[in-house]
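re: ur question from yesterday

yeah so i grabbed the chain u mentioned. its 279 aa long if i counted rite. heres the sequnce exactly as i have it in my notes:
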Amino acid sequence: MLTNTNTRQQRRLPVGAEVLPEGGVHFSRLGSWLSAPSGGAGKRARPLPGCDTSFSERYHKLSNPGIYRAITALMLLAPGTPMLFQGQEFAASSPFFFFADHAPDLGHQVNRGRREFLKQFPNLALPEMQAAIPEPTDPTTFARCKLDLSERHKHSEIYALHRDLLHLRRQDPVLHAQRPGGVDGAVLGLETFVLRFFGGNGDDRLLVVNLGPNLHLDPAPEPLLAPPPHMLWETLWSSEDPRYGGLGTTSLETEENWQIPGHAAVVLRPLYAQEGTHA
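ran it thru and got these structure tokens back, copy pasting raw so excuse formatting
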């Protein structure tokens, strides 16, 4: 894995083309889509679990349900090894603060160092915010982060979303392959893009992600959208499945060209076209 001791002072990290897909650990940056990320514009801290602040908000609280489901699909199906923060898979209501169990002397240094570190964010340097930062070594900080496992049932739609995506990632041979150079992507619109996972003999997969409103793509000149010869695309999985709280998904490729639903992610697979179809 590539490391850098001074990443905050650099505009971008080195390209990791030599790193195998499974060697890259990634997590959802939904918060960066909705507001300035930690270290982003103005370096105003927006609470993101596991990042650089101690005021942790869960991803599902930062977005509407459709965008949350779409970003979750991207994170769990994209190349690399996804990382879920504790309880993220069932939209836990408990926060995820930074906590630690140290001896008193070391604990005091950690608490003081944490506050000093967070002063790089102008809003967290304010006295009232410094006073509100939970102490990592305070037992109540840890207690507030304990998961309520009954929420697996209370938030069953989100739990099913994560379970089904992980199953698809593991069982679908194309998505599971994680071959170097086995994925290409293209931007389709201001908030819409596509990833194409290449399989053998044209057995490809498309992951279409739209974080904006419904998009009618006509014309649709992007080559990655073209199905293999004599085939058309059919829906394999959609974030708008009613099991996840969605509103259903009609065919994306239509007689009027591409109709891409808003706030959604859809996985497509090729199917041999029957006579009379538009493929």
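noticed a couple things. The two ends are 42 Å apart (CA to CA). also The mean pLDDT is 82.
anyway ttyl
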